[in-house]
Amino acid sequence: MNIESLVKVIGADFYTGVPDSQLKALCNYLMNTYGIDPHHHVIAANEGNCTALAAGYHLATGKVPVVYMQNSGEGNIINPVASLLSDKCYAIPAIFVVGWRGEPGVHDEPQHKYQGMVTVKLLEDMDIATYVIGEDTTEEELAEVMKGFRDILAKGKCVAFVVRKNALTYDVKVKYSNDNTMVREDIIKHIIKVTGTDPIVSTTGKASRELFEARVANGQSHKYDFLTVGSMGHTSSIALGVAVNKPESKIWCIDGDGAVLMHMGSMAVMGSNKPNNIVHIVINNASHETVGGQPTVAGDIDIVAIAKACGYPNAVCVADFDSLDRELQAAKERSELSLIEVKCSIGARADLGRPTTTAIENKEHFMEYLAELQ
User: Fold this and answer.
1) What is the DSSP string of 78-137?
2) Does the model's pTM come out above 0.90?
3) Which of 100, 121, 126, 235 could, after both became Cys, cross-link 203 (CB 3.0–4.6 A)?
4) For the CA atoms of 178, 185, 297, 161, what is the dihedral angle to 10 degrees?
5) pLDDT (tens digit, 9 = 90+) per residue, 37-68?
6) Are 183 and 345 in contact, with CB atoms under 8 Å apart?
7) Do 53 and 3 touch, CB atoms closer than 8 A?
8) CA-closest candidate to residue 111, choices 291, 231, 213, 201
9) Around Cβ 327, how many Cβ atoms within 10 Å?
């Protein structure tokens, strides 16, 4: 189905969400049509943020908003749906558009398998009427479903369209770029040159894939790295949990700007605890690159100032490799919590692979290595 058909049938004029590769057609349509416009389209920090923003839109306009997201974000909407939107509370209607990663019977990455199994059940458990859109869904069928959905929305309840792989299309190409010069894969190569055998906890998406391939290219073991392939936004908290229990080891956290934004409160917890053995590296390309390149607000905020306000004693921003190498070495030698924001371009190799070890193998090898350390 062409995305214009879905948009026409829904008939809304405000969308907010977190980008998803399964919804790339919708994301690109919204960026091409509205860009980032607080009256029509906002990319939020996380899915709960989107849901609350949608509620505010309804309160101010009386109209029904659309919230789009990957199914992994369902966990983030449970609180606002249950205790804000619910017809047993404020009865605020919303239309959710959910990309179905890990659909049973469709090959996907390990972090999506369980989420895929419970996607529809979670929505139904939240009393959200659900319809699945597939490649063969017609505009006429969708219009008939939407007619019934409007009756549900009129009662102050929510509805959802769950979108299968390749169900939506959009013919217009949208290119995302920035003015930064450093490539993330090269940034990661510079990081592991300095870290040596120190443990690394890396974030969701292409950064972990590039770290895995860099180890292969160097002939190094993967035991040094915990690849956080799911649970976006929680990498620095995992690193904190490791660091406080391995106080004699330097722990490195490779994070992304979208992930930092998703659960930024973790920076306050990190800064308050001030572990003296963590280096928190935020690779910032101001985009959700792994799912298509759509922008984050990280290009408009000062991550270094936020880190310092949260209590990080050391925080710097670098935009070239000489500065990066210098700050990495200084952080390695320093016995204090450090943050390095690295300005990064958008883009990755077309032939970038995926980890060839399982998530369980990654966990076990990493734990075995940590057990060897003091």
Assistant:
1) HHHIIIIISTTTT----EEEEE-TT-TTS---HHHHHHHHHHHHHHHHTT-EEEEE-TT-
2) yes
3) 235
4) 110
5) 999 999 999 999 999 999 999 999 999 999 99
6) yes
7) no
8) 231
9) 22
